[in-house]
Each structure stands twice: as C-alpha cells, then as structure tokens.
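[agent] plan:
  1. take the single chain provided in the ticket
  2. run structure prediction with default settings
  3. attach structure tokens to the ticket
  4. add a short note for the reviewer (M.T.)
[agent] executing step 1
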Amino acid sequence: MSRKGKVLKIASITLAALVLLGLLALAVAALVPFDPIRPETRNIPDQAPFRLEEKAGLYLADDGRELMVTWGSYGGLTANEFRPLAGGDLVPASADEFIWKPYSRQGEWRVAFERGEAGVTGMRWRDTAGREHFAQKRADPAYGQAEVRWRNNGVELVGLLLTPAAAGPHPGVVFVHGSGRSFRDYLYYLQTADFLARSGCAVLLPDKRGCGKSGGEWLTSTFVDYAMDALAGVELLGGTDGVDPGRVGLLGVSQGGWVLPLAASLSEKVRFIVLSSGSATVLDDTMRYENECNLRDAGVPRWLLPLVAPAIAEQIRRNHGAFWELNGRFDPLPYWLELDVPALVLNGGMDRNVPVKRSLAVLDEVRRRHAGADITVKVFPDSGHGLELGERPGIRGDCLQLMADWIRQKTANSVTSDE
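[agent] step 2 finished; step 3 output follows
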C-alpha cells in the first residue's frame, strides 16, 4: 500500500473512531432522561388540634440520649439526635399520641406524650423489640424554640427560631439553603443549628421558598429572590428579644454560598457570612465539575469525558428549566470584590460537588484585588461535601467548633449596647 493510501486509511479509521465515540457519548447522555423538575403539591392540614408548641423542646432519654423535638416542615413534629446523627418524623395520631417513623431504619412505634400540672413532662414509647423508653422534657433547655413566619415581597416564609437560654444580647445567623428542594428538617442543618444555639448564637432556619411550609416557588426564582428572603430573615432575627441586630449574619450551605456575597451587597445589616461547602466560581462551572466527577465515579474514562460530559450537562440544564436560565451564568466574583464584612469559607478537600481548588483561586484573586478583604479559609483535606469525618454521618465536630468560635470572635467587638 502506498504512503498516501496508508494516510487515508489512518484518517478513515480515526474518523470512524470519532463517530463511534460521538454515538457513544450520545448514548450515555440518553441515560439522563429529559425529566423536568416540577413544583411540588403541598397540602398541610391544620396542626392546631395537636398543640405542637407544647411538645417542642429538648428531651433527656433514659439511655442518656438527648432528643430535639421540633416542628416538621410538612406538619407534625420531628425527633432528632446529633450524637450520633439520627432523626425521624412524629406523625400525629391524636393530641398526645404520635407515630415515630425513623428516617434510617425500618419500623415505627407509638409515642405518648405525658402531662403534669405545668404541661408536657415527657414522652414514652416502646421500640420494635418491645422495650419501654421514657424521655423527660428538660425544664432548663440550652435554647428555646419557636416556629415563626415572616414575609418577603408577598411570599410567606416559615422556619425554626432557636434562641440561647443564657442572657443576651446574642449574635444571630440566618441559614440560606442549598440547591433543589430543601427544608429545615435536613439533619445536617439541624445539627449545625443545635450546635450554634448551644454556643450562644441565635439561629433562624427557614424552609426554602417553595418547600415545606414556605410559600413561593424556588424553580422560577433568582438568586436575588433568595438574597431578599435571607435579608427578610435578618430583619426578623435582628428584632428578636435577646438578639443584637448589629451582630447578625448569614450561613449559606452549598448553593447558598452564591447568595451570601450578593445579599451582603444589598444590606448593611449583614455583619458576616459563613460559606459551608460553597463555591466562588460561576454556577455553571461548578455544575460541570460535579457532572464530570459523577461520570468518573460511574467508570467513564477520563479521555471520553470531553465528549460525554457536555451532552449530559445540557440535559441537566434542560431538566432545571427556568431556574438554570435565570441563574446558570451567575458569577459571584463582583460581589466578593465589594464585600466589606468578614467571611468564613469552609470546604472539604475531597468534595465531589464543588471545585474547591478553582473556588479558592477565585478568593485568592479577591484578596489581590481587594486589599481590605477579611476572608478566613479552612479546608478539611479528608472531608467531602458534607464536611464529615470518616464514615460517621454529620458535620465534623472541629468544623462546627471553628464556626462557633469564628462567629464569636468576629462579633465580639460590635456588641450593641441597650443602655
């Protein structure tokens, strides 16, 4: 065969291989169906007959566990513990009898709340093995609880307010949710809220707009909408008894991290921000990183990613519909460059959802261009997106302690006097 013939043969083989790879990419992309995310239908029945406010509180069980009983995002109550991390729904059967449905294991059991002259004194139940248990409601809990409602531009938001029992005034923090449907019932959120409240920081943990008991719709909202929701929460928390309005900030989880510098640019009432597994890159860039990590985890060779990943990424964008059209190209950098309040950035070195190295490079650029930037960064090398420690579920204790200590330090010199 002539040299020209060999070249043509190689070119033909190469072209055929590329066509085959393209078809393979399309086949893999087809595995992600066009399944647009739709608004959920919520129909929460009247909860007044169950007198939930009497039952919310901290309980000490006979086996030494402490349980946090609080309002559920979709009605009823939830029972949660944080060492180890576990929870479940308490579904009302009558005013004082509930069905406990744990999240992480099969089975359910009937719970009876007991009363004394002062109201609810405890809860009694039998586990699946028939053993009886009793948990006494604490008369001196580390923090108080309330389910609160507030509004942002006609949208009613509902959430959980935790206020430290110790004398104030206290700093406060408003949670900003991650992506998709998100509720206050999420155990990682409750774990963080419990820890901060025990550390002397008031907490407002809402249901995200369009989720749980909060009105509105997240799918058709922009990050500006989320920022205004957060600022309405800052207004509410700052006006709460025992909370210093001059020491209220925001805590954004994952996607919530994009909202924080934007919200801080819109109001001087935000005095600090905390990013937990957030990103400082463009939203679409973070999605591509997560998509590529998922493909590698599924066994797709690295050399095939440039062909497969874009097709799947486009399908993911289509599934998110209006949300992605409104927010996909959001770039937080301009808001970071304007930030004039302290920021704490917490990431896991093994995060498969956030491009941590690229995100930290953005923050390095912010420091170079904004001489007054007060940004504290902590990366936990062996943690993933959940900032966990090893196989143990929940946020690692040293991360929570750092968060509490940093908030205390950064707000210590801005106490507003009541005198």
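[agent] step 4 note for reviewer: The mean pLDDT is 88.
[agent] ticket updated
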